[in-house]
Amino acid sequence: MKSPARLGESARRAGVGPPASGVAASGVCSTAATLTGRYDTDSAATYAGAMANADRPGWQLGTLRGVPVYIGRTWPIIAVVIIATFGPQIADAYPELGGTAYFVAFLYTLLLLLSVVAHEAAHALVGQWRGYHVRRIVADLWGGHTAYDTDDSSPMSSALVAVVGPLANAVLAAAGWLALQVVADDRDVARLLIGAFIYTNAFVAVFNLLPGMPLDGGFILDAVVWRITGSRSAGLLVAGWCGRVLAVLLIAWAVVLPLVRGETPDTFYVLWSVLIAGFLWFGASGAIARARSGRLFARVRVRDVLRPMVLAPDAAPVAQLPQDADVVVIDRQGVPWGVITVTELGQSARPELQDVRAAALARVQPAGWVAEVSSVDADVTALVRVAQDVGGAIQELLVVTGGQPVGLVSIQLLGEALAAAERRPAASATV
Q1: HSE-up of residue 383 (Cα within 13 Å, Cβ side)
Q2: Where do the record's region annotations for Disordered lie (predicted)?
């Protein structure tokens, strides 16, 4: 950045731009303590490096159009479970294989990994096409996930990104069926693997289209309700409750249905159903919480918590700084990195400090502290999102509109405003 007009763009290039997470905050910020964090004396660069290391979800396989692709740290767990379950079945069906049956089971885990990565890659590629900043693809214990940022999502974009994942699995299932026509011998191990590959991808495609969070079908339902009502919170709420219903139905299918038939529930299916139902319930509950959070965030506007500020070079003497507004300190490239509040400026009014440079008094801010909003009349959803992405290290947010800095927001004040809004009765029910 060479001027304030380019502040947002330069900050993003410098690694301190605001990540607008594609997944909103999972809980309601009901107290100021939820948002308030204390910043230590480490530099922003050190903090950013630590965050980068902590953000690595596993072992990187490669990149897809600049997006890192990882095997999550929990993936070996599901691989071991599959090998331990599928291996003995193969050994029983193909006794001539001996211990090689477990290697065949391992090959199946690789095919499953391919299916997961293809599913998530479809999400990522369409997300990029729709203007999302895709941060990573991860294959993990629960299958996989794609993390992205977006400043301008829409029902159409959300639906398109969601639907292509199951479609990718449907395409893989169809490709597997074509490959199966080439293998004539029913006893061929390749036929077994291809058949398992077809079944897995067909099941994943159908299951993921079920209309409930956190499945892709839930995001499609969310987008439909969002489009009809104009409220993303309404979409999340409906899709979240549908996800909870799916979780209950899954348990009923595994436990209640066999009992009604006078049969004993299969222990294996019960355990897996409980595991998957727990995953569904947790994700659905997160969507419901995000819907309620969105309703709360919509009741506070950016201008309600905004404080005036001025920009100043970090080499400027304290004597030249204005005394009636907070100061945002920028480096020689124009990138904002520190804050001096009015109170701190008053404490620095002693004669012996007048020649001290602004850099000596500024509190270093962590990477990601610049929050872009459409206008000061927008609600504080973007501010909360940035604050939660950065975490407890942040005390202030620099708010930017159209590339222009418009003020500072105290995390403590933001939390207090949300707490006050939560105590007030809502003017109308929007969710």
Answers
A1: 37
A2: 1-24
Q: Which among 291, 284, 277, 194 has a CA at the least distance from the CA of 242?
A: 284
What is d(CA 310, CA 325) in angstroms, rounded to the nearest whole number? 7
* Whether residue 360 sits in one domain with residue 283: no
Q: How far apart are CA 257 and CA 263, in angstroms?
A: 9
pTM strictly above 0.70: yes
Tokens of 300: 């506070």
Residue 383 belongs to some domain of the structure: yes
Bridging pattern class, strands 370-372 and 396-401: parallel
Helix (H, G, I), strand (E, B), or coil: what is residue 34? helix
Q: Using CB atoms within 10 A of its CB, is residue 377 exposed (0-12), middle (13-18) or buried (19+)? A: exposed
Host domain of residue 10: 4-53+300-423
Give the distance, in angstroms, between the CA of residue 187 and the centroid of all CA atoms in the same chain: 45
Could you tell me which of 156, 74, 171 has the C-alpha nearest to residue 122?
A: 171
Residue type, 375: S
Indicate whether 123 and 180 sit together in one domain: yes
pLDDT tens readout for residues 235-252: 999 999 999 999 999 999
d(CA 294, CA 231): 10
Total count of domains within the chain: 2
Residue 428 within any structural domain of the chain: no
- In the structure encoding, which two tokens stand for residue 192, read together? 């077994």
Beta strands per DSSP E along 165-301: none
DSSP string, 241-275: HHHHHHHHHHHIIIIIHHHHTT-PPPHHHHHHHHH
Instruction: Let me know if residue 430 belongs to a domain.
Output: no
The domain boundary residue, chosen from 297, 330, 359: 297
| Residues contacting 283, CB < 8 A, separation 6+ | 213, 214, 215, 218, 243
Peptide bond before residue 258 is cis, with ω within 30 degrees of 0 = no
Instruction: Give phi and psi for 410, each to the nearest 5.
Output: -75, 130
Residue 269, C-beta contacts closer than 8 angstroms, at least 6 positions apart: 254
Taking only the tens place, the pLDDT of each residue in 15-68 is 333 233 333 222 223 222 223 222 222 333 333 343 344 457 889 999 999 999
User: Residue for token digits 């959300």?
Assistant: 158
- The strand order across the sheet containing 67-72 reads 58-64, 67-72, 133-139, 145-149
Residue that terminates a domain, selected from 247, 262, 297: 297
* In the block, residue with structure tokens 């090998």: 83
Name residues of the chain where pLDDT drops below 70: 1-55, 141-142, 151-152, 347-354, 426-431
Encoded amino acid at 345, one letter: L
